[in-house]
TrEMBL record:
It comes from the Bacteria. This is Uncharacterized protein. It comes from Desulfosarcina ovata subsp. ovata.
Amino acid sequence: MINWENQWSEENGNFKNDTVKKVLTPMKAPEEESVEPLVIFWRAMSPHGDQNPFFSINTKNENFPKVNIFSISLYFRNLYKQSQTGISIYAPYAIRRLEWLNKLILNNS
């Protein structure tokens, strides 16, 4: 909940951070398409402290009455809790990149 309180103003019905707030600025949309704002946070984000990674919140914005929020951190936490064997990610170049980083760090120390 602390993360959420740092991002959202209940009083203003809007985000505190201008970088995030811009999602509520209307843009030119394709004809006949419905547009809903979405903010994706990497950190755990929940207004009520629950573990739901996707939720909507009402705004006081004249263009968008609600904004959708997705917390990647909560999504992965839920995946991990549901899994019997952990989370498997296909990242074929990750080991090679970590080896290069290790060489850079060890050679510079």
